[in-house]
Amino acid sequence: MRNPAPIVLTLLLAIAATVFILNRPNPPEAPPTEPAPPAAEPIEEEEAATPPPTALEPRSWPQESSDLKPEEGAVFGNLPNGMRYIILPNGEPPERVSIRLHIAAGSLMEAEDQRGLAHFLEHMVFNGSKNFTPDELIPRMQRLGIAFGAHVNAYTSFDETVYMLDLPDLSDEMLDLGFTVMRDFADGALLKTEEIDKERGVILSEKTSRDSVSYRLMQQQFSTLMPDSLITKRFPIGEEEVIKNAPRERFVDLYERYYTPERMTFIVVGDIEPAAAEERIKNAFGTLENPAAPGTDPDLGALKQAEGLEALIFSDKEVPATELGLLTIEPYEKKADTSENRAAKLPLGLANAMLGTRFDRLAKKEGAPILGGSASRQDLFNYVTLGSIDVSVADDRWQDAVPVMEQEFRRAREFGFTKAEFAEAKANLLNSYEQAVKSKDSRKSDGMATSIARSINDGRVLTSPETNLAVAAAALEDLTPEICHAAFKEFWADKGYFLILTTKEQPEGAKEELAKIYEQSSEQTVEAPEETEVAAFAYTDFGQPGLVESEEEIEGLGITRLVLDNGVTVNLKQTDFEKNRIRIAARIGLGKLVQPKDKVGLGDFATAVVEGGGIGVHSVDELQQIFAGKNVSFGFSVDEDSFSLSGGTTPEDLGLQLQAMTAQLLHPGYRQEGVEQFRKAVPMIFQQMKHTAAGSMQKMSSWIRGDDPRFAFPESADVFLGYEVDDVREWLDAEFVPAPIELNIIGDFDPETLKPLVLATFGAIEKRKPRSAPDDALLKVEFPETPQTKNLTYESKIPVGQAVVLWKAIGPKDNEETFRRLNLLADIFGDRLREEIREKLGASYSPNSGASGSSTLDDFGFMIAMIEGKPEDAEQLAEVTVGLAKTLASGGATDDELDRALKPLLADIDKSMRDNSYWLGAVMSGSTENERKFELARGRRDDVASITLDEVNELAGKYYATDKAIQVIIKPEETE
């Protein structure tokens, strides 16, 4: 319910450090250019008799210099060659294991003539290694059920490279493959010249796909703020000249000097015995050797610290939003990860949270020039500490926003925080630690393995949720608003600030004006914040509880259906897939199907108004205070065929969650502040639609639905700006408040406790209208005539184009089994796209294919392929795609292609059976109108497993024909 955090400078820096990673969802499957030697036996067998390398002093673990104890059950080890490993047994999901190879080396380790090769190496380990020829690895994995993107991935950042592999079962064959692959990544890459040359185009395509205005601005900011730092000269994607021309020996140099056991940590998390995993690690990696002259950590250079107030402006007409920030930069001070040092970070962390909340609440005041704000402290690369105060500016009114930012920053420094602010922030933080403990047993192995990998360079102790809670609770017990105030003052004392404005245009003299406004604001007196009282929640009694009219157990699915005497249908499924978590979704009325056709975009406006308007007598801000420390969340959306209320909670807060959702149904928050917040965001929305392919994609989405206003987006901001609260109220009072309700609840609940809570909330409201099928006319849209070509443009200097090809197909409505086969067909076609467009042509980093359509609209379905590349290549890419589809339609797929697509799909189906989101969204939601969903769920795996090559090829011939193709060409069009 909070406004999203602004796109701020420090967030961009953090993205560059951690999130701006060069993901590789589709490792290459390039064919060899010469006969390849037969694959060797797994490494542990082949080299069992090889003498071990010289033993090194074991590298230390963070817990060795800390009072913090690592999580019970975790095994930490060191091989004689210096490689470390962590094994953490975890049973969710069962019979699966996730492995990660962390290498403490990234783009910062590159020489000038190697810029981009750390990331390039991440690609090359898939392109031929000691045990796998270039065209062997991917098919081998697929035949075992390992899907790319879903089960295998990798990333390269500034200071680390991580390889990730999630194994869908624990068979010896699967484990042998996984450990052999990881060993090959460590030192077995062949790095053949011909394979490097073939991959250059793929890397350049990825560089093209990463290009954006935000990325370019980030590079400018790095260079300006840290001009003497190596970071500004080592962005992971690298330099085009190096990518095009670097010789093999520069790859080999980086690989051999930095892919060393002394820099490696191997991570195993899953349903596996530690002793067995440890034995495999020793066999696989024990013979790794360190080079005679390993690479060293680079000098990252000196930091530029602000002196006084230094104003900086970054501008670009395509920037999505105007941002203001105060930034301080200082050298990082390394401290051991101890309970004392963790506790010492909490006061400033709480102070930053309180100031961020204060900005967000100020943004809701009438006429406020900001959309929200945040405060943060971040450590990057064990090199630099950043402190920042940031706000998103409404309507480019930065001159008005500067005093707001300055004075709230100064108010916090001078007066600190109120008791109510502190109580709210403290309760929320403590609750997050408590919930982590309660949900511990359902932590997912893949997420845990990745989290561990990303903590390696930070030197954090792998502590349990219980330890984290104990440390935090002890520290929070003694904290006060005054201590948080002191920490905030101390952090910001005696420092210069960079005052940064990021905006579309830089008027003449803007830098001087920016500094002058800030200095003038600093001369104004600020007053202490006022204490506030937290109201009690007003909606706890909805009248006489209802009754259960009928109760039915859905055979084989563990679902119970209740029909209440007021007409509400309730579907319940008790699971332990997410410990101490409950998901709730209410499906109400008909959504966009009944949106007035003369009010395009009203559903989007209604979502913003209701979510931003609170509930009845409570504003969003009041609800945040009331629910502080509670597990109550709720959202409103207008979907294709329903209005939705959704939320997540815990057993202890289930009653309050149901009360909140019932109140939102009966008393939507029709507040003007929701309207004003949305209106301030509208220019940002249309700025992005104008200058990115998102605008063209939205136009395409409307066009293939016959430009039906219910599913279209306004072409002008004036449409959104012209809507008022009454437009929403009139529509929702008629179509949402009294409409039929299907309530779906899944998770860790006690049915006997749950039922009375449901009857006292949703069961106590007035009788609902009887459910009726929508008029046939509401279910029809006109798909474009085929074949044809449509050209779309957007305004941008970023040279990225899109080729989208669509083929009209059967829709999923009442054709679910056929649509499963279309999805499998799309996976097969996606593999062919990757082989041809990515691997052979090097023209697109990640071409993809899918089957899409509507489960509501009549006969609305299509096959789609999307290829991103250079604008000048878009038409050719579309023609190549059409040609590949024609070949598949006429010649069909092979048994091997079917097998390689089917095995990963079945593995994902097995995994989804322990996924609450699958059961809630795909099975329970909408089952009141379509009870066939239960039958489809029961037979899903068997049906998919039974798919034959003849079925797939028949569909290929029917739907991938050339005369059914629509080509949509999307290109940037730079304007003055």
From TrEMBL:
Name of the protein: Peptidase M16
Compositional bias segments (type: Pro residues): 26-40
Keyword terms: Hydrolase, Metal-binding, Metalloprotease, Protease, Zinc
Region (Disordered): 26-74
Domain Peptidase M16 N-terminal, chain residue ranges per copy: 86-209
UniProt cross-references to PROSITE patterns, sorted A to Z: INSULINASE
InterPro entries per the UniProt record, alphabetical: Metalloenz_LuxS/M16, Pept_M16_N, Pept_M16_Zn_BS, Peptidase_M16, Peptidase_M16_C
Cofactors demanded by this protein: Zn(2+)
Organism: Haloferula helveola
Keyword Protease (UniProt): yes
Family: Belongs to the peptidase M16 family.
Domain Peptidase M16 C-terminal: 248-429, 725-903
